[in-house]
Amino acid sequence: MLDLLFSLWIIDYKGSSNAAYVFKLTVVVLLCTQMGLGHEQGFGAPCLKCKDKCEGFELHFWRKICRNCKCGQEEHDVLTSNEEDRKVGKLFEDTKYTTLIAKLKNDGIPMYKRNVMILTNPVPAKKNISINTVTYEWAPPVQNQTLARQYMQMLPKEKQPVAGSEGAQYRKKQLAKQLPAHDQDPSKCHELSPNEVKQMEQFVKKYKNEALGVGDVKLPGEVEKRSTDKDNLNNGDRGTSAAVGVMEDKSPDQKASQYSCYRCKLNMKEGDPAVYAERAGYDKLWHPACFVCCTCSELLVDMIYFWKNGNLYCGRHYCDSEKPRCAGCDELIFSNEYTQAEGQSWHLKHFCCFDCDCVLAGEIYVMVNDKPVCKPCYVKNHAAICQGCHNAIDPEVQRVTYNNFNWHATPECFLCSCCSKCLIGQKFMPVEGMVFCSVECKKKMVS
Predict the structure, then answer these.
(1) 354 phi and psi, to 5 degrees?
(2) Mean pLDDT by 10-residue block, N- to C-terminus, for the chain (447 residues)?
C-alpha cells in the first residue's frame, strides 16, 4: 500500500504545480504516517515464527494479524513494554488493585507498576569476584524477596521472565494473548456502535467487580495463623477458624506439607510458597506452576486471574465463556446479529475470505487451517496439484489422494504412468508420484 502511494505521487508529480505538489506530498506523508507509523505499533518488526519469510509486521486494517505473514502481533519482535503497562494499568483502574498502578502527571493514563526483581550473585573468578546480575521483568509484589525468589524457582525454567530469555518472551506473548486490549477498551475495537460501546463498558465493569483478581504469594502456615488470629479476635474464645487449604483437621503445629494444591491435588512441600486467589477464598491454594487457566492451561501472566464457577481463567477465556468472539477480528461480539459457521462466531461483516477479505455470505468457501477461504483464492493459493495434468484441483470436483499425491478422478488424469490405462476403481501400484496398473508396467518404466 505504501509503495502504491509513493508510485502515484511520483507519476503525478510531473504535471503538478508547486502548490499542488506540496499539498499532495503532505497528503502522502500523512497517509504513510497513519498507515505505517501511527496506525500500528511495531511496524516492520520481524516475525519470530516465520523468520525471513515475513517482510515485517504490518497490521491488517481490522484483523489483529500481520498482513504479510498472517501471524499475530505477539509473534513479532515488537517492543511493547510501555503499551502493555498501559493496558494492564487500565485493567486495574477502578478496582481494588489501584496500588499496582500509577497515573502519569502529563496525561493521567494509569500505568502498571510491575514489580521488577534484580538479583546479584557473587561469582568467583581467577583473580577476583565478579557479580552476576539476573533481572526478572516481573516478580510477585511481595516484601519478602526470598519468597519471590522461591516462587520464581518453582516455575518451569522456560517460563521464568528473566530479561532477554525465552521466559521473558513467553510472558510478553501471554500478556498479548491472555489480556487483549480489545477485551476491555472500546477504543481498541473496530467500528463499534454507541450501543455496543455502552454494552462493552457495562461488561468490563461487571467482570472487574465480580471476577478479576491478582494472585497472592504466601507461606501456607502464615495464612492460617493470620486467619486464626483474626477469628479469635472476632469471636473471643467461642471458636477457631477453619483450616486453610484442602486438608483434614490438623494439630496447631501442622506443616505446609499437609496442604494440597487445588489443581493437582498433590501436597505442598514444607517451606514452599503457595499462590492464593482472594476471590476463590483462602481455603484454596496452588503450586506456583499450577496457577494456570482452566481452558488453555497456560501460566496466568503476572498472576492476573478471573474466577468463575470454581475455576481460574485467563482474561481471554473468561470473556469467551461470557460472550461470543468473532473469529475474524478477534473481538467480543456485543451485537444481537452475528453469524455462526464452522463452529465459530463472526460479525456479519467479518465472515470474509482469510486471503483476500471478500465477503463470503452466499459464496462457496473452503476451510484452510480453520480459516474460510473463497474458491478463487483456494484454487490459486491452497489447492492440491494433480500429478496427471499438473493443474490445480477444484475443491468441488472429485479427486484421488494417496500419501501426499493427488489426481483428478478422471480417465484423463488417473491412469497408468506406463500404458495410460484408466485406474479409477482399479488396483494400482504407486511409486514416487507415479501409478502403475501392473508389475510389468512398473518394470518397463523403471528399466
Answers:
(1) -70, -20
(2) 40 46 42 42 88 92 93 86 90 94 81 92 65 91 93 97 95 96 95 96 97 96 61 43 43 59 95 96 97 98 98 98 97 94 93 95 92 95 94 93 92 93 91 89 83
Closest C-alpha to 112, from 308, 392, 301, 363 = 301
Closest CA to 155 of 319, 292, 338, 60: 292
User: Which SS3 state, helix, strand or coil, does residue 407 take?
Assistant: strand
Cα angle 226-227-229, degrees, rounded to a multiple of 5: 65
* Site of grid cell 517492543: 79
Task: Give the closest residue to 291 by CA, choosing from 118, 159, 184.
Answer: 159
Pick left, alpha or beta for residue 364 (phi over 0 → left; psi -120 to 50 → alpha; otherwise beta): beta
Give the Cα separation of 124 and 129 in Å (integer).
Answer: 5
d(CA 326, CA 372): 13
Q: What is the pTM of this model?
A: 0.79
